[in-house]
Structure formats: structure tokens, C-alpha cells
């Protein structure tokens, strides 16, 4: 279920978010994801925000679809050449064997915990066998709201790995780190890749 308060924050602060995050160069994780894609591969930025990652993917020659629950964020993402963006909730994903890669970078952490297994299963269906999923979430347990009012669901690495296996993925390496969010607070996070089982 889409959290309206979270979407409202992103609609209201989209330009601020873009200014803070979108001018950064592609990091090693994004570059590795792009390098793993076939030439002219098709990818989905699932929860794209203002489209920073989608922009880098398109510049690398990938065919990029991008979705987000925030209409304002989608408008910003659609401005990047080579990016096809539209507004959609997580549960609207109904593609079948359509993508070589799905980039879900700090997006699923806004979903209800009970809904995440279903979202991962939908991503698996959307990927071709052997396709690559990237996931980034905040590390921890439980749920909370930040000072801006955004809802977060926290995950441990073993928990996320188990969810991925149940959805038909083989989890790969994880990277841990910490950094500031839009509200300025520093949080621990992890990212990992997972391959869609044949």
C-alpha cells in the first residue's frame, strides 16, 4: 500500500531532493550494475525519484523505464534524455520477462513489510531468467517515520536474503555503508545484487 504522507513529502521536496542527490556522479554500485547489462539492455528504475540513476543508465546506452509513486519525481525523471518515466505504485508492476535489470535503490524501504515479498515476486516475473536485481535498504528492524514524515521499513541482511530466495533469486554480494538522508540524519544501509533464477 502506498503511504500518502511519504508521497506528499516527495512531491513537496522533489526539487530539493534533486539538488541534493542528482548531481552526484555514478557510484561504483551503479557502474557495476550498468556494466552487467547486455548492450542495449532494457532496465527498470523501480522507485526512480528524480531519475539520477536512470539518467546514468540511459547515458550508458541502456533502454530505461522509470517509475515512481510521486508525480513530481516522475516529471523530473522524464526530463532526462532516453528515460521513459511514468507514475506507478509498487504493486502496479505487471511486466513479464521484460527487463534485463531492475534497480530498486532505496525505494522498497517505503513499502509495508508484509508487501515486500509480493513486490520481489513481481520483480522476478518482470526480469528475464538470469536478469539482475539491485536492492538498497536501510539496515535495522521494525518501522518508523523520519523527521520529515516519511515511513521506513528496516531490514536485516539475512532477512532480505531470505525474501529474495523465496521470490526466486540467488542473492549476491552485499555492500554496507552509512550516510545522510534527505532529512539530514545519518543511517546505516546495505545494498546487494540478486540474480533471477532460471
Keywords:
Rossmann fold; 9 strands; globular; 198 residues; 7-stranded mixed sheet; alpha/beta; 6 helices
How many individual helices? 6
Strand order of the largest sheet: 3-2-1-4-5-9-8
User: What is the count of β-strands?
Assistant: 9
The CATH class, by name, is Alpha Beta
Strand content: 25-35%
In whole angstroms, the N-to-C terminal distance is 29 Å
Rg, rounded, reads 15 Å
InterPro entries: Methyltransf_25, SAM-dependent_MTases_sf
Keywords: Methyltransferase, Transferase
Protein name: Class I SAM-dependent methyltransferase
Domain Methyltransferase: 43-131
Care to describe what's here?
The chain has 198 residues and is an alpha/beta fold. It has a single domain, classed as Vaccinia Virus protein VP39 (Rossmann fold, 3-Layer(aba) Sandwich). The chain has six helices and nine strands; from the N terminus they run H-H-E-H-E-H-E-E-H-E-E-E-H-E-E. Helix 1 runs parallel beside helix 4. The chain is globular. The model has no long low-confidence stretch (mean pLDDT 92).
Amino acid at each position: 500500500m502506498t503511504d500518502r504522507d511519504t508521497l506528499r513529502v516527495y512531491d513537496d521536496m522533489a526539487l530539493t531532493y534533486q539538488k541534493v542527490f542528482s548531481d552526484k556522479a555514478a557510484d561504483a554500485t551503479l557502474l557495476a550494475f550498468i556494466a552487467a547489462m547486455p548492450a542495449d539492455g532494457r532496465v527498470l528504475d523501480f522507485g526512480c525519484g528524480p531519475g539520477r540513476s536512470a539518467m546514468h543508465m540511459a547515458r550508458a546506452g541502456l533502454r530505461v523505464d522509470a517509475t515512481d509513486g510521486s508525480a513530481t519525481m516522475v516529471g523530473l525523471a522524464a526530463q532526462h534524455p532516453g528515460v521513459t518515466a511514468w507514475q506507478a505504485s509498487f504493486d502496479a508492476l505487471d511486466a513479464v520477462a521484460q527487463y534485463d535489470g531492475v534497480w530498486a535503490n532505496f525505494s522498497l524501504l517505503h513499502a509495508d513489510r508484509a508487501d515486500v515479498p509480493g513486490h520481489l515476486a513481481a520483480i522476478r516475473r518482470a526480469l528475464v531468467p538470469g536478469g539482475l536485481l539491485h536492492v538498497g535498504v536501510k539496515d535495522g528492524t521494525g518501522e518508523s517515520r523520519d523527521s520529515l514524515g516519511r515511513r521506513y521499513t528496516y531490514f536485516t541482511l539475512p532477512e532480505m536474503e531470505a525474501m529474495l530466495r523465496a521470490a526466486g533469486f540467488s542473492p549476491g554480494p552485499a555492500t554496507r555503508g552509512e550516510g545522510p538522508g534527505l532529512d539530514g540524519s545519518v543511517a546505516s544501509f546495505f545494498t546487494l545484487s540478486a540474480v533471477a533464477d532460471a
